[in-house]
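W.,

You were right to be curious about this one. When I first looked at the sequence I had no strong expectations either way, so I just let the prediction run and decided to look at it fresh. Below is the sequence, 318 residues in total, followed by the output.
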Amino acid sequence: MKKILFLLCLPLMWGFGAENYVPVQEIVVDGIVKDMVIDNQNIYIGTDLGKLQVYDYTAKKFTREIVLPKIKDFMGDIVPARVQSVDYMQGRYLILSDSGKGGYSNLWISENNTTTQLIGPEDKEAIIKARFIDKEHVLLGYLSDEAALFTIKSKKEEYRVQLSESKFSDFALNEKRTQAVFSCESGVLSIIDTQTGKVVKTLKGINLDNVYKVDFKNNIISGAGQDRRGSIYDLNSGKGDYIEGSFLIYATALSPSAQKVAFAMDEQNNISIYKVSSKSKIALLKGQKSTLSVIIFKDETTLFSASSDNTVMMWKIK
């Protein structure tokens, strides 16, 4: 485990109604952060060094570490298995990693100090993201923009649906995990019923290119667009709008109430926070050192972010 740096959270200045903030805490992990999720006071962080590290941000310490078996890369060298996606539910840890063989994936479940492989390279599956729907089922997002519901006990899929002919980018679940929004290179967002795979709504017209990341809270959906558009859709009406960025927008997050939205809007890797209703900027988070990949609201005033380095940042805003 590496050292943890603690910083004071001080609003730096006012500018056009947006208050500037620096992180309250910097958490240094082993490897480049590839994915993370939050449950209560714990952050579950997957890295490119084949690790899932659990950090308790209230106790300010790491509490658990799961290390995956190393793999052979295409050159035959033994290397860590890069973690692509992580999740946690009721004592179970879900880890998606690369296998080193043909671009195929490994899917793992860890419980009671035992890690079991659910999918391996012999299954020839190119999976990009995995999340629990409940303790026994996992939603999978495939590179081919297919969605599948996987049953852990039987190691079989309940369904697999093709959402588009474009390359998959991301998906996000609603609070009850009953629906998911899928994004792809086309800019079209597909909303599916997670139990059946049925597409219940399609959202389009705002993003005209790849939507790198999405979030889904309180029937509001946000999208981080390659076209420099931070999109905001109302699921009920199907109507959307966008906030223009000055650079490719790689990450987004909604607060639990969906009254605030965060976008990585500029080339300096700052995080801009807006009011969803007015699209007015209310905060600017400064301090990220490289390209943002994950932003998560814990509550209305607490955020976590990660980028292409070994540091997770915690922020407090008004």
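Here's what jumped out at me. The CA atoms of residues 294 and 306 lie 5 Å apart. And, maybe more interesting for your project: The chain has two domains: 1-30+178-318, 41-162.

Coffee later to discuss?

I.
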